[in-house]
From TrEMBL:
It comes from the Eukaryota. Keywords: NAD, Oxidoreductase. The keyword NAD applies. InterPro entries: Ald_DH/histidinol_DH, Ald_DH_C, Ald_DH_CS_CYS, Ald_DH_CS_GLU, Ald_DH_N, Aldehyde_DH_dom. It comes from Aegilops tauschii subsp. strangulata. Residues 1-413 form the Aldehyde dehydrogenase domain. The keyword Iron does not apply. This is Aldehyde dehydrogenase domain-containing protein. It holds the Pfam family Aldedh. Belongs to the aldehyde dehydrogenase family. The active site is at 190.
Length: 423
């Protein structure tokens, strides 16, 4: 099928997602505990946007003309990789479905999609819409199941030509091992993070507080990009802590279908207990609980948004990904010191810098080893903005035109040129 026709079908697919936004919002909220109001705008809206972005790219995938040094002419073809194995996480089921499916479709691949066993509902509904949009049978195949069975089958299958995975670093290792033991299929990984949010003393305190709250408690902290290490320059620390404590008094945890609610429940009991165990670790290691620190209510997997002060860099809560509503506050004095602290992690997914000094901002963005650095903003995601990490946060991109690369193979074609008047 030509790219222009793929693009037309993808546009229709996006229309169907928007037309059924209410049902999809309900599925995501029921499945993952996401607040309904935000889910409709962010999760479902982003899904349709991603489809349209890559629909526009489907007929713009070009090779190159090669300037050969002898009597040959050459060009490159960018061919579909073939069968793509797409394994998506439970924290953003709809968004991550189309982060992978949309560029794979644009590139001309077929795919086997395994949603997380905790949140499979929206992926099944998306498969239904694909059929209605005119995606041919066999192009998008959604397989529900568990990681050690369905996920492992995809990663080790000899007829799967590449795998794109989003999830934990531990499982990312297993997928790379499975690839190595099978057909050496290329792998793209978007894994864990322990991102720093660095706030300098010249920053607007209100903006800094707003950004730290959204960077840590959006999606109840179940975000690989969460900035759970908040570094505050000494001159702003006390003012920031006071304003943050005041702001958190109005934060509402509860039923995700209640429009007043800011934070729903953790995705399941396992994640709920894991987050609480990290909170207990923080208390035992000597960190001070500014807000939260315990379950919220008598029923459900609700946790109070927790802010720790007096956190040290060697504490477990400052080193390991928690994936829950937990913020760690730490002090610094100089630019050099905070650069070292920010990079002192095995992860490299994202970072945030809050300052009014452009020279400081420029130095920080060039010094931090991360896939994305936001200045005076956070979670500023867009279909045209590359998304992916470094170090143990993985490799490969899940947005922008760069996302097409993992679904395309480059082939060189060379033929001799006889009696050409020029070379």
């Amino acid at each position: 099928m030509p790219g222009s026709e793929r693009g037309r079908i993808m546009m229709k697919y996006a229309d169907l997602v928007e037309q059924h936004a209410e049902e999809l919002t309900l599925l995501e909220s029921l499945d993952a505990g996401k607040p309904r109001t935000v889910t409709r705008v962010v999760d479902i809206g982003t899904s349709a946007t991603s489809l349209r972005y890559f629909a526009g790219a489907a007929d713009k995938i070009h090779g190159e003309t090669l300037k050969m040094s002898t009597q040959f002419q050459g060009h490159t073809l960018r061919e579909p990789m073939g069968v793509a194995g797409l394994i998506i996480p439970w924290n953003f089921p709809a968004i991550m479905f189309f982060c992978k499916v949309a560029p794979a479709l644009a590139a001309g691949c077929t795919m086997v999609v395994k949603p997380a066993e905790q949140t499979p509902l929206s992926a099944l509904y998306f498969a239904h819409f694909a059929k209605q949009a005119g995606v041919p049978d066999g192009v998008i195949n959604v397989i529900t199941g568990f990681g050690p069975t369905a996920g492992a089958a995809i990663a080790s299958h000899m007829d799967v030509d590449m795998v794109s995975f989003t999830g934990s670093t531990a499982v990312g290792r297993l997928i790379m091992e499975a690839s190595a033991r099978s057909n050496l299929k290329p792998v793209s990984l978007e894994l864990g993070g322990k991102s720093p949010l660095i706030i300098f003393e010249d920053a607007d305190v209100d903006l800094a507080v707003d950004l730290s709250i959204s960077a840590n408690f959006f999606n109840k902290g179940e975000a690989c990009l969460a900035a759970s290490r908040v570094y505050l320059q000494e001159g702003i620390y006390d003012r920031f802590v006071k304003k943050l404590a005041d702001r958190m008094e109005s934060w509402v945890v509860g039923d995700p279908f209640d429009p007043r609610v800011n934070q729903g429940p953790q995705v399941n009991k396992e994640q709920y207990e894991k987050v609480l165990s990290y909170i207990d670790h923080g208390k035992r290691e000597g960190a001070n609980v500014l807000t939260g620190g315990k379950p919220c209510g008598q029923r459900g997997y609700y946790i109070e948004p927790t802010v720790f002060t007096e956190v040290k860099d060697d504490m477990i809560i400052a080193k390991e990904e928690i994936f829950g509503p937990v913020m760690c506050l730490m002090k610094f004095r100089t630019v050099e010191e905070v650069i070292a602290k920010a990079n002192d992690t095995r992860y490299g997914l994202a970072a945030g810098v809050v300052t009014k000094d452009i020279d400081v901002a420029n130095r920080m963005t060039r010094s931090i080893r991360a896939g994305v650095v936001w200045v005076n903003c956070y979670f500023a995601m867009d279909a045209d903005c590359p998304f992916g990490g470094r170090k143990m946060s993985g490799f490969g991109k899940d947005a922008s035109m760069h996302a097409l690369d993992k679904f395309l193979a480059v082939k060189a074609v060379v033929t001799p040129v006889y009696d050409s008047p020029w070379l």
